[in-house]
Amino acid sequence: MSGFVFSEKPIQIAEGDGPYVYDDSGTEYLDMGASYACVPLGHDHDAVKSAVQDQLSKLTYVQASYPVEVRTALYETLADTAPDPIGKVWLCNSGTEANEAALKFARSATGRSKLVATMQGFHGRTMGSLATTWKSKYKKPYEPLIGDVEFVPYDDSEAMAEAVDEETAGVIIEPVQGEGGINPASAEFLQHTREVTEQAGAALIFDEVQTGMGRTGSLWAAAESGVSPDMITAAKGLGNGLPVGATLCRDWIAENYGSHASTFSGGPVISAAANATVETIVEEEIPSHAADVGEYLRGQLRDALGDDVREVRGEGLMIGVEVGRGANRVLKELAMTHQVLALPAGRTVVRLLPPLTIGEQEADQVVEAMEAVIT
Length: 375
Hints:
- By secondary structure, the chain is of the alpha/beta class.
- It has 2 domains: 13-44 and 285-374, Alpha-Beta Complex (Aspartate Aminotransferase, domain 1); 47-283, 3-Layer(aba) Sandwich (Aspartate Aminotransferase, domain 2), CATH 3.40.640.10.
- The chain is built from 13 helices and 17 strands.
- A 7-stranded mixed beta sheet has the order 4-12-11-10-7-5-6, with helices on both faces.
- Helix 11 (286-305) runs parallel beside helix 13 (360-374).
- The protein is globular.
């Protein structure tokens, strides 16, 4: 008998099209979280599919030390989209790998070891990224992790100023916390953190694994705060469902990155998918669309749910509905009764991370389902 090491949902997904997925019996579900923010252009997107098929017919793999046109194009595309003066790109396979690289680069570039992260933050499940993740349930089975990590309250400028000193290699922050409950940081906090890291000579890392590629209404959430960090990490929305991550960095980081490497860094097929994804997001102004639909959806949810929920919050199409300690019950009823798939963010928050291409029709479908389950 075959086995697996994972927890499975009771719905077997067989196909996807745009913002919808279909189980093996043909039942249609609205994807508000089944793809974990990984398909910003929706399922089965023509441009991404065509780019992948074309590259498959030419070259499947060659190691990153050999220049390949499609990989070089991705380097240039990502560098062009990043806030100045970020201009260097390192490619990998996932968000946690992108964060691992950023943490290593911070240490190698500064010659220091101390890392500062935030309470309720989530940065991945590999040993380095896990050390900067807050919740003990993710960490305890694997301890001891890497040391010299200090946690400060999220969005607390005074605590951040106290933590960052001449021993600090880097500070890692999600501009909007995902797993922690969809908590947006204030622009003042991010700007203040930029100031104290510059004064201390420490690297500022924005973990945009979930917020990047238009999710919050801008291509990068960093742009909304007016802050240019030393590194930005990306992954989920980068390949429209294919596994890819990236660490974007300033020159002073790239010049002192150490000897970090990855066998599958920017594989040709993955690079083709990411190129098509990023180019489409930019050319079709997907972030602006996400901002408009996200504002509409949050407003409709607030009107429909009222005092039956604690809060509706988020930016763009990264939305959290705080329902109290009933999030898993709400998610189950949404899926099994109303064919809407969403995610938890802890025990109290229903997290909505749909394809960025949804419109008001799909937003209304979500509101109707949430109202039926919650009120």
